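Quick log. Single chain, no ligands specified.
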Amino acid sequence: MSAGESHGRSQQLRDKARQLNEAAARSADPDESRRLRDKARRLQEQSEQERVIDDPGMDLR
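-> predicted structure:
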């Protein structure tokens, strides 16, 4: 996978995580909201891991 493709994938994961967080905020069901936030958190973590793999010298602070 090229750097551009992996950057695009990371961006897609972040976008999906944002969408899930927005859906969680709109959800009236606390269990559904929690499920959506958990999934968003996992996608965000995956995105961050892929960014580190793409740029091992990147400072995560």
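The mean pLDDT is 86.
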